[in-house]
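Now for a chain:

_____
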Amino acid sequence: MRQYFEKMDDLGKALKPAQIERMKDNVAQIEEVYADVAAAVDKAKNAGVPAEDVHKKGDMTVWERIEYIVDPGTFCPLHTLYNPAGNKEGVTGVMDGLARISGKWCVLIGFDNKVTVGAWIPGQPDNNLRATDMAKILNIPIVWLVNCSGARLPEQEKFYANRRGSGTCFFRHAELEKMGIPVLAGIYGTNPAGGGYQGVSPTILLAHKDCNIAVGGAGIVSGMSPKGFFDEEIAEALIDATRKFRATPPGSVKIHYDETGFFRAVFESQTGVLDALKEYMSYIPAYHPKFFRVAEPAAPKYDPKEISSIITFNQKMVYDFDNLLARLVDNSEHMEFRPGYGPEVYTGLVKIDGFLIGVIGNRQGILPNYPEYTNEYIGVGGKLYRQGLIKMSEFVTLCDRDRVPMIWFQDTSGIDVGDIAEKAELLGLGQSLIYSIEQTELPMMLAVLRKGSAAAHYVMGGPTANNHTAFTLGTATTEIYVMHGETAATASFARRLVKEKDAGKPLQPVLDKMNALAKEYYDKSRPIACAVTGMVDEIVRYEDLRNYMVAFANAVYQNPKSICPQHHMILPRMIRSQIVKGLDRPKAGE
């Protein structure tokens, strides 16, 4: 299959100096957003007590543990700003991401021991489940850095129970193990109650000498007061019990290494635990990358840092998606699927670090003589029409047949609407694309370049595809909403305007409400807001998108659940034969 993959078609072109000069203000606007994101990330990393307080106890912080254990330059953080419950600390108390350890890819997640000593807090259970979702989709191990002091009891009702509550994580660990996906744990500190289950539910338990895991700890001591209330007599009993538990907490190394044997090994130093995790990661099943690579890895021909001079900060202006993609894929090459059909959507095969990846993205700009089902209006890029929806369903299905993982790039304002669009079956075709995605077993990732809007956000590999989309990335230009704020204001207040006009009343009070709603939509759809609420899993710089794409490609091909031999693939052959036309018959003598 070398003739298909070693040299694909050229993609993109060099930027002219005039364009770079013209886009300077655009770049400045983008950098302003990224500066705000960087400040928010720095605040999240420094949440809780100062690192010096952790060091005084002889401990490393979670970030120091991550830096020590990960192969240099491979950590791709996720959920750094995630804080759906609005915790005062600004975080969920865990840090996670894709990481390579001892040459093998995993989902790495650790309790932040600077924030309430790693306690379970609101929003954390869902963060943990997002991380385990990734491991399940990518079929790669989880490495846990456990340092969990239990639950933040005054807020227990916000995270303890429910279908996606704190205990769900332990069932998920069992599910992953049943699927053959190991969960490795390095255990530090005191881990009672939920922290105890967090320590015992993984596959391999590697312990620091001062750690413990237990059903309960000093905070529980003797349970309920026999009197039904608290007085000084009860207080004295609690003080004695607490002192006893603190002096000798249950579930120490003496119990779980010497007696139960739960701990596989115990280490004197903090780094000793991390070194052992590295060793166990080296034992993880993984194919050599050469097994699946279709070509040698190659950097893009064009600098990814130039993307800020391509994509426009102004959502109403257009840009060249193909030129943007050329700055992210190997050697700026591709094989486009059905280029003359569904022009509002790009579909094609690319190489990422030498691995074959399917890509779908929204193209921008005016589309004359399109869509084919009407002459009452013309198409605009970013919106989805009949052909584009059909083409995406075809491409997804063929990628699944050939076992080619997919990356989606969104910048969509929605699906064509109105009776003309309904007659063209767009409602059904949108759901058909969802069905096409769901019937696959393909790992996917998504980058929302600019707009993620309306049902198009769902159908184009949105995070709602949670059986397939491992994670979603945002950028400085990301906006996610059910519709643009101005459109929402019109939809909400147009009838009120008519009513007020007919009644002879002033329109300004209604206009004030419309402007306020549009502003609220804008504020709640900004990149940081999207990251805090979980609509995206991380905000990344454009040039860092490729790092995540490389991590995704390597993780997916590390130990796939099923394989299509390269010489059995049909999609590249269909592309080269131009779908319908077929190959030209050779002339006589050829």
